[in-house]
Amino acid sequence: MRGLFSAGVTDVLMEEGIVFDGAIGVSAGAAFGCNYKSMQPGRVIRYNKRFARDPRYAGVRSLLKTGDLFGAYFDYHLLPQRLDVMDEETYCRNPMEFWFVCTDVRTGRPVYHRSDSLDYEELEWMRASASMPLMSGIVKAGGYELLDGGISDSIPLKQFRKLGYDRNVVILTQPEGYVKKPDSSLLPVMRLAYRKYPRLTDALAGRHVMYNRQLDYVRKEEEAGRAYVIRPREALKIRRVEHDPAEMQRVYDLGREEGIRRLDEVKRFLGEENCRRADLSGVLKEEHQS
User: Fold this and answer.
1) Alpha-carbon torsion 190, 125, 32, 100, what sign?
2) I need a labelling partner for 121 at 20 to 30 A (CA). Which of 112, 157, 223, 224 fits?
């Protein structure tokens, strides 16, 4: 749910017509960030609040009944296709590339997948990127067995530079100075649950090391002027699973506030050619009426 901060930031950027050549999302960053490609500001906070207390959306009942804390069919198929529809036509037409990051459970390595449509397979890639270990079943897509991309590549800035994106806006959900600490409390359970996937459990055991190295890389890119980083000014203090719409709105609003505060700097960093007013008038009208 810290990803609601990112959604607040990206909604401001969309509304201001900030145009990117590409974007890459991990976990909630994939499930929420894809709305940039469909150009639907406001959709993330709307559906999260609407279904916050719906047991089909997220909760222990869903976990016990289906093996997924966040309902696999409800969240990733019924919701975007019927209940709060993603704009598939805009998604497919928009030239901005959107990439999902997932983790291959057999190798413990990241898998990067470019999404060009919103068909069933693509939505499964999205689900895989956000499928937390122990809280989700392993997702099969593209011939892989997959779980949450944050296990193996939480902040994929280095990968995105390898793909040719040399000036990047990075949205983090932890404040400046955050250092991830090892969490061994669930590791014995994970080693048992994923005993067939020893490389996955090795990746889980070393995740804090990977994450902190990536934070160092982000800082170096920021200092070199190749990355512009947006972070919350303090810890967001929201649970991974949140059922209170007011708490969701609070974190989303913090993202909006930070997005507005940083807007002029983002525009200067990107240059005028990437800050033209996008044709969002129809979309915005629809969102505000909903």
Assistant:
1) positive
2) 157
The pLDDT tens digits for 68-112 are 999 999 999 999 999 999 999 999 999 999 999 999 999 999 999
The answer to whether the Cα torsion of 39, 8, 217, 124 is positive or negative is negative
pLDDT on residue 184: 80
With a cut of 90, say whether residue 288 has pLDDT above it: no
Burial annotation 79-95 (CB, 10 A radius, 16+ → b, else e)? bbeeebebbeebbeebe
CA distances from 222 to 20, 23, 168, 227, 236 (A): 18, 17, 9, 5, 22
CA distance 121 to 139: 11
Torsion angles phi and psi, residue 148, rounded to 5: -45, 130
Predicted local distance difference test score (pLDDT) of residue 183: 84
The C-alpha torsion from 56 through 62 and 65 to 67, rounded to 10°, is 130
- Pick from 131, 215, 232: nearest CA to 180: 215
Please work out, in degrees rounded to the nearest 5, the angle formed at the alpha carbon of residue 150 by the alpha carbons of 238 and 35: 70
